[in-house]
């Protein structure tokens, strides 16, 4: 009899886990991939920037895993809402949690809750057309915007803010969001790093792309592009070289300006009823720690986007460490028959491919633990879901959603796909 495994979450970690199960135990495993959304692929669909089409094409690889015999996609099924841990342990021999890191981290400065102070998670979800965020969530009516953080997500966010709507037309950005981007009043974008250029988390390829923006000048202050490159990696040397090049380059008079700042930390978001400015303090390192110098600067921005990292949320009934914001595990094992992979296991770092080896480790642990055991399941998930009035979105339903998105792109004369916005539109498109 086959081993039956439930994988919860259909992002890269969930799908690479499924692939590793099928490869490491060929012909002896069946996998159900449970996903709260009607659509698979997690952050590949709702995180990777719309203009990064070559990275998004990884979905073509992931889909082949969902099409393998013995694999089922069950969309619209949320752990904690529709099923619990005990239900899954009744129905499957093992469960692998791959629910990622869905929420934002905070900066912990006064004014962070003012309207106009927002998380990059929200903004990314908005331009990616995530059903949790409505089209009217953002109005880009400020001429100056600050983006706090100098990681790759911040680079995505500033690039989307800097590009014209015309440049994004051929992407899958929902039509309603594109209309709002076309109305953007943003003229200046300030990207804020609390340490030096040698400490920035962005990668060279992503940084270089900012210098190719047709709609924005990139400005760096020569005194902030200075860096200690002792022991620096090639990547860091490359970043600093690019930044120094920009510091020496005069602006070309493009419609928008991107100011990349270093050694500045946010200390307060100012405003009465909404964000009116961001107060920054110059910083330096003291024994490796960022400390303020007492020199302040006020940026007259109407929106502050914090791009300071993601964090996982606890799953009901699953152990969770509040200090690491991950599920404690040993090579993927949480406890008997329960496993974890991806960002929920390691924290919110690493590119899509990092999740492949990570998932393979979890699967090795799982298969070695379960080797020679008799199957323990006795209930069927389909009957359980039906008894609760939950009718999953199948893989074929998802293909209908995809077909509707490609048809919409054709009708609008835009690229390969235009995302449908909102759960209702997606469910209507697949006849649900
Ligand atoms: C904005 C952004 C852009 C990125 N861009 C790139 C890039 O260009 N290139 C690159 O290599 N890497 C990129 N990354 C990193 C990459 O996306 C991650 O490494 C990867 O997505 C992590 O995979 P995961 O499966 O752990 O999480 P996720 O991709 O987040 O997948 C988790 C899945 O679980 C589902 N889920 C959550 N809770 C439940 C529940 N209770 N029940 C059922 N399902 C649930 C979610 O809906 C989601 O589909 C980016 C990350 C971010 C945040
Ligand atoms: N194209 C791609 O390949 C791509 C695209 C997007 C994301 N990703 C990956 O996804 C992962 C997550 O990316 P991310 O950008 O969210 O996270 P990240 O790489 O960890 O960057 C977070 C940034 O926020 C800063 N920060 C944290 N707390 C802060 C605070 N309180 N005040 C000011 N700044 C603060 C950090 O500075 P300190 O260093 O000083 O803490 C850092 O610059 C990364 O592994 C990334 O490479 C990849």
Report mean pLDDT, rounded to a whole number: 96
Bound molecules: flavin-adenine dinucleotide, NADP nicotinamide-adenine-dinucleotide phosphate
How far do the termini sit from each other? 33 Å
Q: Number of DSSP helices?
A: 16
The assembly state of the depicted protein chains is single chain
Strand content: 15-25%
- Percent of residues in helices comes to 25-40%
Task: Please count the beta strands (DSSP E, at least 2 residues each).
Answer: 17
pLDDT under 50 segments (min length 5)?
none
The neighbouring-strand order within the major sheet is 3-2-1-4-17-16
Largest sheet at a glance? Answer: 6 strands, mixed
Which descriptor suits the 3D outline?
Answer: globular
Radius of gyration: 23 Å
By secondary-structure content and strand pairing, the structural class works out as: alpha/beta
What report would you give on this structure?
By secondary structure, this protein is α/β, with parallel strands linked by helices. It has helices at 12-24, 43-46, 53-56, 59-66, 85-91, 120-127, 152-162, 165-168, 175-182, 204-210, 234-247, 343-346, 354-370, 381-387, 395-412, 423-429; strands at residues 3-8, 29-35, 71-75, 94-97, 103-104, 117-119, 144-148, 188-192, 216-220, 256-261, 264-270, 277-286, 289-299, 303-306, 310-311, 333-335, 338-340. A six-stranded mixed beta sheet has the order 3-2-1-4-17-16, sandwiched between helices. A hairpin with a 6-residue loop joins β11 and β12. The radius of gyration is 23 Å and the shape is globular. The chain starts with a strand and ends with a helix. It binds flavin-adenine dinucleotide and NADP nicotinamide-adenine-dinucleotide phosphate (NAP).
